[in-house]
Design brief:
single chain, 442 residues, TIM Barrel, Rossmann fold, eight-stranded parallel beta sheet, three-stranded mixed beta sheet, 17 helices, 17 strands
Length: 442
């Protein structure tokens, strides 16, 4: 991002105040801190706007593909390391359906990919994309596969180096706004024309040398393709790590625009390819496509991705409210916990071990654990009493008692006073809940 003085020099310097700031310099300072939008100035020239937008763009360009309602977003990253701030757009994982397998197997493979998802700590994680590849099969199967992929409402990647076939396939699934794979030195001009005509993002690759890859990307941009994805040609896992790191460092540290784009890795299904997939999730691959993603491999891979791309500064939270564990009724006990996901799912799992139906009251503590929230004043008798009232807990459970974690015993008296409910102090650790619940139910 340019400095305030660099921005100021490009502004009209009228000091008109129409931007809601007294001077252009004050407005420039807010722009430099990314607290206002450039559009707030009605007099900025198109030339200055173009310069400022270019200089203020993220070091890794944001590229989207897929359906407009739920597109895949890649790039737009600003950090080398997650702990410095956060990573924004999780690696897109996709399965390749090759036309050499025949159309029916291609369709089945794509259906399986779409159906691969599960819930973890309150989030649905899934295989995000399907890729349709032309290799040794018939062009007709490739086109029909592209059409079918576009009906699944998932991001689509079209894989062929034949510009004519690519143009036909892109037209067949235009509503899915596919990612076009790929332009190489051999087909560059023709493939760029397909991308320009369709307006779809284009993969540029096939070059092992980073200098040549940068030249191809720069050439594509100058030819009018703005949405570019880079594919370095790394043969081994070590070479892949080296190339992905070079690209990210060049973009983030050096602000080198020709390498400031998302990246893609196309892999097979060998043990080394599986290692590369995990490596790509950890180190800068924006898209990972594989021939096969069996459940025993892809579930751990998706879990790894979720861990890497969770904002370290924002605790994972569940929605506050009253949850039913099992099939609780009017005589079922009410337990209290916070909305920190790790706490919630640990407590819930321990409750389920008891086989006793329970009402679980989850208080909004901004994603903090029980003791942290209590110490910070986010878990108070007043907040619990308000939630009991809003969730109509006394109507759903006629026991007129609530079990609180043993670590917050000190709130029991005030909570009893505010709610007129019997407050039962539970175990300090949720692992003690099954034994306690069985004694309550006995």
């Amino acid at each position: 991002m340019p400095t305030a003085m660099e921005i100021y020099k490009l502004l009209p310097r009228k000091n008109c105040g129409e931007c809601k700031f007294p001077t252009c310099l004050a407005f420039a300072m807010q722009l430099a801190n990314q607290k206002v939008a450039l559009e707030a100035c009605p007099y900025v020239t198109p030339e200055a706007k173009a310069i400022l937008e270019e200089s203020g763009a993220p070091p890794v360009k944001l590229v989207t593909f897929g359906w407009s309602g739920s597109p895949a977003k890649i790039g737009d990253e600003t950090q080398l390391f997650r702990h410095d701030k956060t990573f924004y757009h999780p690696t897109v994982l996709g399965v390749i359906a090759d036309d050499s397998e025949g159309l029916e197997k291609m369709k089945a493979k794509m259906q399986d990919a779409k159906a691969t998802y599960y819930e973890r700590v309150g989030q649905i994680i899934r295989v995000d994309s399907v890729a349709v590849r032309h290799s040794k099969g018939s062009p007709e199967d490739f086109i029909e596969g592209a059409k079918y992929a576009s009906t699944l409402i998932v991001p689509v990647v079209l894989m062929t180096e034949d510009p004519k076939l690519m143009s036909e396939a892109a037209g067949a699934c235009a509503q899915a706004r596919p990612l076009l794979y790929r332009a190489t030195q051999e087909n560059f001009d023709a493939m760029v024309q397909v991308a320009k005509a369709s307006g779809f993002p284009l993969v540029v690759g096939g070059a092992d040398d980073m200098g040549k890859l940068a030249e191809l990307a720069d050439k594509a941009k100058k030819a009018g393709v703005s949405d570019i994805v880079l594919e370095p040609k790394g043969s081994s896992a070590g070479r892949m790590l080296e190339q992905m790191t070079i690209i990210r460092r060049a973009a983030i540290k050096k602000k080198f625009r020709p390498l400031g784009y998302p990246t893609i890795a196309v892999l097979g299904s060998s043990k080394e390819d599986k290692m590369k997939a995990a490596l790509g999730v950890m180190k800068y691959c924006s898209v990972v496509l594989m021939d096969q993603m069996p459940p025993e491999f892809v579930y751990p891979l998706m879990t790894l991705r979720q861990n890497i791309f969770t904002d370290p500064q924002v605790p994972i939270q569940v929605k506050a409210g009253l949850y039913s564990v099992g099939e609780p009724g009017p005589k079922s006990p009410v337990l209290l916990t916070t909305n920190f996901s790790l706490t919630y799912f640990t407590v819930r799992a321990d409750i389920e071990k008891s086989k006793i139906p329970v009402w679980l009251l989850v208080v909004n503590t901004d994603g903090q654990s029980v003791m942290t929230a209590f110490a910070a004043g986010k878990l108070t008798p007043e907040s619990v009493a308000a939630l009991i009232e809003s969730e109509k807990v006394k109507e759903k459970s006629t026991r007129n008692e609530i079990v609180i974690p043993g670590m917050i015993t000190r709130m029991s008296g005030k909570l009893n006073e505010l709610t007129d409910m019997k407050v039962v102090v539970g175990p300090r650790e949720s692992s003690g809940l099954p034994k306690m619940l069985k004694s309550i139910a006995a």
